[in-house]
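Hi R.,

Here's the input for the Phenylacetyl coenzyme A complex you asked about:
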Amino acid sequence: MYGNDFGEPVDDVSQLSDAEQQRRFDELIAADERIEPRDWMPAGYRKTLIRQIAQHAHSEIIGMQPEANWITRAPSLKRKAILLAKVQDEAGHGLYLYGAAETLGVERAELMDLLHTGRQKYSSIFNYPTLTWADMGAIGWLVDGAAIVNQVPLCRCSYGPYARAMVRICKEESFHQRQGFEILYTLSRGTEAQGEMLQDAVNRWWWPSLMMFGPPDDESPNSAQSMAWGIKRHSNDDLRQRFVDMTVPQAEVLGVTLPDPELKYDDGHWRYGPIDWAEFAAVLKGRGPCNRQRIEHRRKAHEDGAWVREAATAYADKQTARSQRGAA
Ligand code: FAQ
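And here is the predicted structure with Phenylacetyl coenzyme A in place:
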């Protein structure tokens, strides 16, 4: 039970003043408890979560495109079935995340509109092309690998619906990472041409994967506040370093060279060379190799799917009318 400003007990927290609600929110964050949709929350906390969860959801569904590009060309029926399942998983992740964002009071249609009009971002990584089959392995190994390192801490995010959605997403991403590694491991034991294809894919995906973690800490405007609110648990650079430390020994198993001449082991960590932040900034501004193609494809899929949304709405209306008639 909570007390108001006069020390009187209050059962219904909605009767508390803003200062008391803020105090209660701060206590929950300090105690590492979860904030739930009906709890009071500062406007900035809500706004930050909507931005991050929406960007995350958009990334999942835009992220379906580079891999879907290879479903018809997968080298065997088994590979096709696995890739199809993985791409469907990404659609599911998008749905959980849009659902989590909706608990904060935004409409999914509004978020779609923000994506389609370029007013909300999605991950920079999905603006690069998938040129060969080895890219399916590299995406699983590096992109899903980076996603796991970034997202496992989000299972402890202070906002309950986001944290709970992340638990299942991370389990599935872990399967995705292994299937990518397995594709590359198979190629690593194949012909010379397959080995070259593997090395070429790793050369192209390594640096964009490091950029997925976001700008360096001293240029990350949102990190400090997001960490104070328990939305983010680690800084961008800490997670990036964790990913590099995890991935270098795996590259040795695959027998590939990571495209960084400055990579060296020092004081318990693999230190990496400078990241091309100008390239990252250009991709965020819409000037990556595939930005335009990704958004055009997404808009078209949305328009082509209008009849499905209309049919679902008409069916729901019919069901409601039927149950109302039944009640009368
Ligand atoms: N790309 O101040 P910070 C996946 C933006 S899902 C584009 O550091 P923050 C699954 C940032 O939004 C991959 N934009 O921001 C999969 C902010 O924008 P603002 C997606 C980026 O939020 C695998 C500005 O820059 N994962 O891969 C990027 O504190 C395979 C300043 O940055 C998530 O979304 C970027 N890489 O930290 C699917 C995870 N980095 O303020 C298919 C959840 C930063 O102008 C196939 N998100 N920006 O609106 C997060 O953990 C955080 O939002 C960060 C950024 C770490 C991404």
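One thing worth noting: Residues 160-188 form the longest helix (29 residues).

Cheers,
M.
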